[in-house]
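Forgive a beginner's question, but might I ask you for the amino acids of a protein and the tokens describing how it folds?
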Amino acid sequence: MNAVLESDTKNGSSTRQRRPEVSSRSGSESAEAVNASHISIQNYGFFYGPTQVLFDLNMDIPERRVTAMIGPSGCGKSTLLRNINRMNDLIPGIRHSGDILIEGMSIYDPYLEVISLRKRIGMVFQKSNPFPKSIYENIVYSLRVAGRNKKSELDETVESSLKAAALWDEVKDRLHESAFSLSGGQMQRLCIARAIANRPEILLMDEPCSALDPIATGKIEDLIEELKKEYTIIIVTHNMQQAARVSDRTAFLYMGKLIEYADTETIFMNPREQQTEAYVSGKFG
């Protein structure tokens, strides 16, 4: 396959599009050597009323690895991500087929409390959404809701979470200032710190860098590399270069269907499916 492909722009001039380079820190394990499955998506379909938007998806997502989901807008990436912690439950008329298992247990088990599920899963959204509170109170919010108000525990959680989010050194002297005083990149790292304050097992990231500049994006990507030592991470991204840099495995979705799912190096350098090759090389999308 050609590493460089030609494509026509709207004005008829030719532009050169280059296949994303896979980072040496991603795709380092063969398909046979990936960690044990943490999340298992089995024949999963999803409907908004009569409209089916996800079709018979099957994926085993390894523990303590970064899995990227790529594909054009509207292909179902974010819908699938939000269903892993059942964020779509309150939308009228939704239904699903198949199942999603976390460590062998269905997230739709009638005996499973949704709140207990969400304690195991942290979520970071496309747009940073700090609460209108201080930096400190943003981090400890989930602990206070759970009735955990011991100052020593709160202080320890704030420090450890901000250190894990690579933000402690930048804000340790201003913890009681408004979270809105931070820069955009700092606010997104604060949201990551808040998401991991309750010690989840899984971290879901829905285009976490789409509104950030390249420097802030680089800090988030470095942070993801560190966080995967403790968390199973799933990231939705439109940025294929980012997927190639940070992920160990990549899933390509198109029109609600899983076209290909493999280690990241395979997806970007030697995909099996023609649609995958066309997408990652910039022929469409």
The first strand starts at residue 4 and ends at 8. The chain has a mean pLDDT of 87. DSSP finds ten helices and twelve strands in the chain. The longest helix spans residues 151-164.
